[in-house]
Amino acid sequence: TYMIAQYLIVYGTIERKLVVTKTEI
């Protein structure tokens, strides 16, 4: 369960960065 939670956090962080990049472009 801990690994899944950590994966979701990392995935969420990457997704946020992608969204910010798209917004900047």
Please provide a written account of the structure.
This protein is mostly helical and 25 residues long. It has one domain. The chain has one helix and no strands. It is rod-shaped, with a radius of gyration of 11 Å. The relative contact order is 0.14.
Write a concise keyword list for the protein shown above.
mainly alpha; 1 helix; rod-shaped; 92% helix; 25 residues
**Low-pLDDT residue spans:** none
Sheet of most strands = none
Give the total of beta strands.
0
> What is the share of helical residues?
over 70%
Number of domains: 1
Number of helices: 1
Molecular shape: rod-shaped
Strand percent estimate = under 5%
Rg, Cα atoms, Å: 11 Å
Mean pLDDT, as a whole number? Answer: 87
Helix-strand pattern, N to C? H
Report how far apart the termini are. Answer: 36 Å
Helix and strand composition category: mainly alpha
SSE layout and pairing:
Blueprint: H1 2-24
Short summary of the structure?
By secondary structure, the protein is an all-alpha fold. The protein is about 90% helix and about 0% strand.
